[in-house]
Amino acid sequence: MEISQSLRRIPSSYIREILAAASDPSVISLAGGLPDEQTFPIDLMAPTLAKLTEMPRVFQYDSTAGYAPLIKHLTERFALPETHSVMISTGSQQGLDLIARAYIDPNDVVVMEAPSYLGAMQVFGLVQAKIETVPQCEFGPDLAALEACFKAHKPKMFYAVPDFHNPTGVCWSLETRKKVAELCIQYQVAFIEDAPYRELRFSGEALPLVSDFCPNDSIVLRSFSKIASPGLRLGAVSGKSSFIAPLIKVKQGADLHSSVPMQALLLGLLEHEDFPQHMERICSLYQARYSVMIEQLQTQLPNSCKAYPVDGGMFVWVEIPACDTFELAKSLLSNGVAVVPSPVFYPQPEQARAALRLNFTNATEAELTEAVTRLAQGLNQYI
Q: Is 90 a member of any domain?
């Protein structure tokens, strides 16, 4: 049976492929966006796990929007106005897929930053959207380019990760957040705010969501994979109720509803009195690992390379001299360190500036030191 034309246009995930190659125990992987397993709050979830045997209701079919007690908790946690609602998705990735399938017709224009999240490019590619990109600066998207793009292409939506961007780690400034919201309102562009790393801040003050400045023109995607466990496969999508209703309709046809026992387990975790301390431990651990990585990068990398500091999240972006970054990544893999080359994160890979994305959350401090040593040796030999 022939696969669809839309699927034929979507390349396999390079990151998934390189993670498989990096499973060799001699390789230190900086390639994936994996949280460290020691951060999974299994001890905090244990009481709810034990209670599930006394909760037969959660093993029955349930509402597509989500487990009612969890919906109530998140509505309060997110301080949603009465006109807004939240639904549970099977990971925030499904939330993005539901948005694309509910709102995008073939050749509708979606704006993204370049570089941008690979998973979003795949989702929008599957619905045959036309992706337009704007360059990213130190404080977020190039605002002049963004307005010009809105004027010229009349996009349906602008997708972005304002907090600790994947792959660059950039965190938008307050001024950028306000201006992007203003432009979305002015040009009637829906803002899709992906916030999977927002809680992983370990330096500086938290900033408002972009959607706080355009609440009636935005949808927010949140993930519990980074603060609880990826295996739970739970995310949340919030926005105006009229925006969320079509997503629920699409989800009914996709999977009826996300796992109710896992939703009950997540609720128990979020309501646990020690959950705030759990978040502090995660951020402290990742800050220590980041500090080791950035210090080693600044000390060991060739002068022609530049590593960009971050205030949170999971990634460091390293710009390097022009080269074939895929061949470089293969060379580095043979040298015992796995990285992701920049073209993976561009809808038009040929437009990518030479760079590497490095993950610092899933390796020990000793492993990070050794990984940077291998990286520096490989770069010195290649460039």
A: yes
pLDDT in tens, 49-75: 999 999 999 999 999 999 999 999 999
Nearest to 333 by CA among 366, 374, 373: 374
Q: Residue 96: which CATH number?
A: 3.40.640.10
Coil, helix or strand for 125? helix
Domain span holding position 179: 60-271
Domain boundary among 271, 296, 321: 271
Neighbouring-strand partners of residue 190: 157
Distance CA 89, CA 234 (A): 6
Structure tokens at 183: 């432009």
Strands 306-307 and 235-240: unpaired
Contact criterion met (CB below 8 Å) for 322 and 383: no
Residues 14 and 138 in one domain: no
What is the Cα–Cα distance from 232 to 307, expressed in whole angstroms? Answer: 33
Is the model's pTM score more than 0.90? yes
